[in-house]
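Hi all, posting the design record for the shared folder.

TITLE: backbone redesign
STEP: 1 of 1
STRUCTURE INPUT:
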């Protein structure tokens, strides 16, 4: 398990049968994320790569940049069960279910496919999930009020919210609540503790959001 990836105490998920939602990163060593995403350091150079379950550094280097959605699923499974498969195990099951398209040259594209993911989550992990194509701020609040976790598509630069959003979508985060007029979420590619377990004003979160995602009914 990626125990060393937990950053902070996590958010609580409503209901006595749920544990706190841990804030995990998609990279094995949280302290290196800044140098990987902004400093040009190869992800495969992460000395903690083996904790992902990957068979070698090269495979880890390919997948660590792509399994943000599986990191969100892993957080949800840990919140529900107190344990979860490794990211590599999740990746293997997801590939077998068509959640990703692996090309002959070893590259992966175009990203996590929502409808196959819903089938994979239900069949392999007993998680009821729903694709939401109009994930407006109001719908996001309603899903969270219902006790669901929401995998939301946002621009990866949401980890630097003090800057104007350069776009919407392309990266997945796990929304866990909306205290006041804010959104609380866990960002698998956050480069500081505050951006892994994050809280942003709802309007700022929405500026990065693509208004699509997947609701997890735990």
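Okay, here is what came back for every position:
SEQUENCE:
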């Amino acid at each position: 398990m990626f125990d060393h990836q937990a950053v902070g105490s996590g958010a609580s998920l409503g209901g006595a049968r749920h544990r706190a939602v841990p804030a995990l990163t998609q990279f094995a060593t949280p302290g290196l994320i800044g140098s990987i995403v902004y400093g040009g350091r190869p992800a495969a150079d992460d000395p903690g790569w083996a904790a992902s379950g990957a068979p070698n550094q090269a495979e880890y280097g390919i997948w660590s940049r792509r399994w943000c959605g599986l990191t969100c699923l892993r957080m949800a499974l840990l919140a529900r069960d107190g344990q979860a498969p490794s990211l590599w195990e999740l990746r293997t099951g997801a590939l077998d279910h068509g959640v990703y398209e692996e090309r002959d040259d070893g590259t992966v594209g175009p990203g996590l496919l929502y409808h196959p993911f819903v089938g994979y989550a239900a069949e392999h992990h007993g998680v009821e999930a729903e694709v939401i194509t109009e994930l407006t701020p109001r719908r996001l609040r309603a899903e969270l009020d219902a006790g669901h976790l929401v995998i939301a598509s946002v621009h990866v630069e949401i980890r630097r919210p003090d800057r104007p959003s350069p776009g919407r979508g392309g990266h997945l985060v796990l929304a866990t609540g909306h205290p006041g007029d804010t959104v609380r979420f866990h960002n698998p590619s956050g480069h500081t503790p505050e951006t892994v377990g994050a809280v942003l004003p709802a309007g700022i979160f929405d500026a990065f959001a693509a208004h699509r995602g997947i609701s997890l009914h735990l």
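COMMENT: The first helix runs from residue 33 to 37.
Let me know if anyone wants the other runs.
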